Amino acid sequence: MNEVQLVVAHSERATLRVGDVFLKVDADQARIDAEVEAMALAPVPTPKVLWHKPPVLAIAAVPGTALGRLGEPSPASPAAWAAAGAAIRRLHEAPLPPKPGRAGRDLDELAADLDGECEWLMTNGVLPADLVTRNRQVAEAALRPWTPAFTHGDLQITHVFTDDDRVTGIIDWSEAGQGDGLFDLATLTLGHEEHLGDVVAGYGTDVDLDVIRAWWSLRSLLGVRWLIEHGFDPFAPGCEVDVLKSRL
């Protein structure tokens, strides 16, 4: 008999698995609608939508194995990482979806949020001031004009599945929309800098590596408080705080 498995849960959404079916419960109907629309438009393998009855979206499991997990060595080959880079390039070159996504936030708003999070991290003694200040300086390179692309917006390595060095599925499209393509590349390689060269080789065009590194710092600085408040551990080996330390 299949068991109900809790995949992830926090105050915004929860995902359950029953056999080969995933049930995504989201209080934000617009986010679910955006996910369904993005999967229909994306020119890469995505999960099959089984049914959609708000606030629940049921999707089928994709074949293959995730590239890995943050904080753990990736079991995937360099060729699999390169295949992921090639898939991201196809996505970024596709016709734009109608709305901005997570990777397309207003730069002034993003800078203000970054300043606020840095102040919170230092005022509350969560991280040393020199660590925050250095990464705030690195993050500055990400706050620049960019050409809109079709972005996934939450391209963690757990969201990219491969089999036999080919991409078999990319999941969790709730943050998709128009945005900065380098945000996707940075999210995929966060905590796995050793595979950045493989991803860029598969992506097949010149990218600004300093901007990708800036996004590593920016994402990590913005994420620490959220992770703590939602029951996750950014201090775990190889995770966000270690990413910040690697910039020193």
UniProtKB/TrEMBL annotation:
The keyword Transferase applies. Gene3D superfamilies: 3.90.1200.10. It comes from the Bacteria. Residues 20-204 form the Aminoglycoside phosphotransferase domain. One of its GO terms (molecular function) is kinase activity. SUPFAM superfamilies: Protein kinase-like (PK-like). This is Aminoglycoside phosphotransferase (APT) family kinase protein. It comes from Nonomuraea roseoviolacea subsp. carminata. The keyword Kinase applies. Pfam families: APH. Keywords: Kinase, Transferase.
